[in-house]
Amino acid sequence: MDQNIPPAAGAVDRLIQELNRLPGVGPKSAQRLAYHLLRASDEQTKMLADAILSVKQKTKLCSACFNITDTDPCPICRNPQRTRSQVCIVEQPQDILALEHTKSYNGLYHVLHGAISPTEGIGTSDIRINELMERLKGSSVTEVILATNPTLEGEQTAMYLNKLILPLGIKVTRLARGLPFGTELEYADDVTLTRAIEGRQEF
Which of 5, 21, 126, 142 is least surrounded by Cβ atoms within 10 Å, i.e. has the fewest? Predict the structure, then answer.
């Protein structure tokens, strides 16, 4: 530690730097959060620290859909009320939260954990495509909904998946174009997402 920086200031600076690493948290927001935590009670800060440690130590990937969960299979996969004949493919776990919030879809999910992006060195073997195909073969699934993001990478991934899935005799649909191109699923509003699900079209 720099001898010219008091220990407290050094600790605050370190907290601000770490908060600034979080997505969507700029320098000013990081400062506000750091000073909010300084003013918070010891109990509040301990609860936050425990929650962060717990999410790292206790969560894992569902062995069926690869959503983040603390039980395997995840609550969605083991829910007997969910429609087993539909699987909605998303890029990231947070996309499931966005779709579930609309209450307009009652099937299962499959999380790819990314999208095909040659420019970033992400190929077909770097995301959960092989696991998806193993899951679909010999299953009771009759429809796969491609809910990849309406971006160049999302479109490339959807087209590749369509070519793989169609020979299995499974219907492939795509979310309707209520979603503007370049928008990520997790940031779309409920009404737009609901219309996209309800108006999905055969790929």
Answer: 21
What is the span of the domain harbouring residue 19?
7-58
CB 87 within 8 A of CB 145: yes
CA torsion angle 91 195 107 67 (round to 10): 20
Alpha carbons 73 and 67: distance in angstroms, whole number: 9
Same domain assignment for residues 12 and 88: no
23/169 Cα distance (integer angstroms): 40
Q: Are strands 143-146 and 108-111 parallel, antiparallel or unpaired?
A: unpaired
AA identity, residue 182: G
Q: Domain containing 44 — which CATH number?
A: 1.10.8.420
